[in-house]
Amino acid sequence: MNQARPMPPRPKGAKIEQTVEIDAPASVVWEVLSDVGGWGRWNPVYPEASGSIGVGDTIEIMIALEGMKPQKSSTKVFHSLPGQALQFGTPAFAGLAHATRYIEIEPLSDSSCRVVNGEIFGRLLGPLLVRLIGAKLDTGMKGQNAGLKAASEAKWRERAAGAL
Fold first, then answer.
1. Neighbours of 46 (CB within 10 A)
2. What is the pLDDT of residues 21-44, one digit of tens each?
3. Among 83, 105, 85, 81, which Cα is nearest to 30's?
4. Does residue 8 form part of some domain?
5. Is residue 123 one of the residues assigned to a domain?
6. pLDDT tens digit sequence for 77-93
7. DSSP per residue over 13-38, as a string?
8. Does 32 map to a domain?
9. 43: exposed, middle or buried (Cβ count in 10 Å: 0-12, 13-18, 19+)
10. Does residue 41 sit within a domain?
11. Mean pLDDT of 121-133
């Protein structure tokens, strides 16, 4: 399937990434992602979230990684292409590191898609952060993908059942 626009560029830096195939259309996955206040129902890394996903918007999140104390953070949305891509991030350690989260949705058919979920740590301390928390974040992303898959597929099944 052709995508309407190219994916936004990713910044340079150390990357952690997970991919999942979802048996729901890209538009349904986007609906789940667009409900920032509902992230806590399916997203173990962000059990609390508020805000919206328009370019320039702020998302307030609670970051919870296994074995670490949960932390509140405020992120800014850099790119938001409905049904395709979301990118948000925040500086850390007085600007010596910058974390950029990206979620990219690639339609595979009218009723399925592939989601790439990743984070890039840039600037001076980016590689160090990946060494320190990379394994925990990788595990968290697997949980995010499983949660996004379950939430999106359930929403799609509900919609399909309602159409019968």
1. 23
2. 999 999 999 999 999 999 999 999
3. 83
4. no
5. yes
6. 999 999 999 999 998 87
7. SEEEEEEEEESS-HHHHHHHHH-GGG
8. yes
9. buried
10. no
11. 91
CATH of the domain at 157: 3.30.530.20
Residue 73: which residues within 8 A CB-CB, separation 6 or more? 60, 61, 62, 63, 90
Q: Which two tokens stand for residue 33?
A: 């992602």
> Where in the sequence is the domain holding 123, given as residue range(s)?
15-36+82-163
pTM > 0.90: yes or no? yes
CA 8 – CA 153 distance, rounded (Å): 26
Indicate if the alpha-carbon torsion angle 135, 139, 145, 147 is positive or negative.
Answer: negative
Nearest-angstrom CA–CA distance, 35 and 19: 21
How would you class 124 by CB atoms within 10 Å of its CB: exposed for 0-12, middle for 13-18, buried for 19 or more?
exposed
Structural domain tally of the chain?
1
